[in-house]
Amino acid sequence: MSLELILIRHGEVPGIDPPRFRGRMDLALTDRGQAQALALGEWVRDHFTVTAIHSSPLTRCIDTAKAIAGPLAQEVRVSMDLTDSDYGRWTGLTHPDAAARDPEPFRAWQRDPCVNPPPDGETLRQVEVRVTGAVQAILRRYTDGSVVLVTHDAIIRVLILHLLQAPLRNYTSLRQDPTAVNLIEVHTDGGYRIALLNSTAHLPRTI
């Protein structure tokens, strides 16, 4: 059996629409987010042989991961380096609010978030180093099956660009919906192939 990496975004939380810099705010899933997570858990159970489940330490990810782990009778392993980007003093603000508070830093961040962080926050390059190191360490523990990582929109987009060897400036070109599933085939030679991207096929139309 080959090794697969399943990257999953957490379910819906407040602050997605209109968007805010949620970052490391510890938000709970909405009622809709909980329903999304339950539907996701059943779908993962039916489609994958899950070897392990790792999660960001934030509640929205842990609760989504538990909805996956429950039908499988597995535990959730918390990985601190899978936490969301640190948006510094923009945490909790909408984009217009951040632009009004810090006009020049916001313009610089928009031009190139790879090297221009929010005040007191992380650059995308720092996120890439943190998260790719964590994922490589996790994957070294397993040889086959499906390894599930439940994390955040920003983290998944950075990881996918890294695996594609694509510039981080393409960050805004990728979309990740709540409970989106991304399937990465891990090759024995160290290569990767993306087999599924931002799939929400597990969600009924009523959710």
Secondary-structure map with pairings?
Elements: E1 3-9, H1 31-47, E2 50-55, H2 59-72, E3 76-78, H3 95-101, H4 103-111, H5 124-139, E4 145-151, H6 153-163, E5 181-186, E6 192-199
Parallel strand pairs: 1-4, 2-3, 2-4
Antiparallel strand pairs: 1-5, 5-6
Helix pairs in contact: 1-2, 3-4, 5-6
Plain-language structure description:
The protein has 207 residues and is α/β, with parallel strands linked by helices. The protein has a single domain, classed as Phosphoglycerate mutase-like (Rossmann fold, 3-Layer(aba) Sandwich), CATH 3.40.50.1240. It is 36% helix and 18% strand. A six-stranded mixed beta sheet has the order 3-2-4-1-5-6, with helices on both faces. Helix 1 runs parallel beside helix 2, helix 3 crosses helix 4 and helix 5 packs across helix 6. The radius of gyration is 17 Å and the shape is globular. The mean pLDDT is 96.
